[in-house]
Amino acid sequence: MNSINAYPSPADLPVATLSDAMERFGVADGIRPLWPGATLSGPAFTVWTRPGDNKGLHAAFETIRRGEILIVNGGGDETRALIGELVVQKARALEIGGIVLDGAARDVTELAQLGVPVFARAVTPAGPWKTGPYRIGGTIAVGGVPVHPGDWVVGDDDGVAIVPEEQRAEVVRIARELIEGEARRRAANQGLVPRD
Predict the structure, then answer these.
(1) Which residue in 27, 77, 79, 103 has a CA-CA distance of 20 to 30 Å to 50?
(2) Where does Mg(2+) bind (predicted)?
(3) What is the mean pLDDT of residues 35-51?
């Protein structure tokens, strides 16, 4: 897409461009897609849980809405998977927009087959605890970035960006301008001639 008008919302903007538009802030450190080509975009539904414990994720499924992104502060723990195939089957049935974990996941092959975009800090076969405690709906941190309920979450092969809801219109405006400038530079690069 060459026209900035092709990008009406953060949903259609690359994570790298959103980060540039936010002066290189807003990217969740160390959070990666679990399968190539996974993308997500939608408002954040936040959960803060004890490291390695997924009771709060199951509770979140009682109220999360279609299209929302389940975004979880799991303390960055890499020793216990907060989700696997069965949890993601539930997420798919509820038509949520995806899952972002500051923690670990498992069953990567099955997650890719299910097609629900999952981004996480790590992969481990070890299962979770299910005792709590947890908090739903508050401000959390994921990959060093604060996330409020309703902030816009965008993920692609480069990682995850968090766009604060109150800054969304301005970030989209700046990102559109950056894309227009990149298109001009791309066209100029195609006109370069090698020197002998």
Answers:
(1) 27
(2) 107
(3) 96
